[in-house]
Amino acid sequence: FLTQSKGGDLFISLSLAVAGRTAGGPAKVAVISSGLFGTISGSAVANVLGTGSFTIPMMKRIGYPANYAGAVEACASTGGQIMPPVMGATAFLIAEFLGISYWSVCVAAIIPAILYYISVFMMVHFEARKLGLKPMAESEIPKFRNVLPRGYTVISLALMILLFALGYSVVLACLAGITSIILVSFINRDTRMSPQD
Q1: C-alpha 153: how far from chain center
Q2: CA distance 16 to 147
Q3: CA nearest neighbour of 83 among 47, 52, 53
């Protein structure tokens, strides 16, 4: 639903606006967008599909070796499994076995997840410096003022986090998130979902 409403594009555009002007920008975009995508998907495979199909060709285009570009995306996407609030299936098992709430698992995972992404980000930064890679072309980088108005597409994610925090079940939180993304997609003609999609 987020892909159909172009909510996933927001993560890529926001990442481009943040890191596109730095050395080795596309690899940093891969890390940031995978971290953002990880907040809504606990699947590394879905994360690679959602972000890697865009970031891997960009990394190769500015000079990263193909195997390194794939490795960066794989590492960044794998971290999505520990990125709250929607984590991998293991988080549900941890909550069940320990007899604690899913929200408690999410809170405990925040700092390790952020540290993981900082370390991957620093790795690609130093590799870009070592290889002497340049920033992306200015024409490929969106402006913040054009990206931020589309931020309404993450309302569903904010709603899910709120419902998790209030102690509602995962099923109810996800159902509310799906319903809200369908409704907010009608705010803009470009994001509107229709039966033909």
Answers
A1: 13
A2: 10
A3: 47
Contacts of 151 (CB under 8 A, 6+ apart): 10
Q: Torsions phi, psi of 37, nearest 5? A: -65, -30
For 186, residues 6+ apart whose C-beta sits below 8 A from its C-beta are: 192, 193
pTM of the model: 0.75
pLDDT in tens, the chain (197 residues): 766 766 667 778 888 888 888 888 888 988 988 888 888 778 888 888 888 888 898 888 888 889 999 999 999 999 988 998 878 888 888 888 999 988 889 899 999 999 999 999 999 999 888 888 878 778 878 887 777 767 777 788 788 878 877 878 878 888 888 888 888 878 777 666 665 55
Radius of gyration of the chain from its Cα atoms, rounded to whole angstroms: 17
CA distances for 2 relative to 6, 16, 34, angstroms: 6, 19, 15
Give how far the C-alpha of residue 165 lies from the chain's centroid of Cα atoms, to the nearest Å.
Answer: 20
Report which residue type is found at 51.
T
Count of helix runs (H) and strand runs (E) in the chain = 10, 0
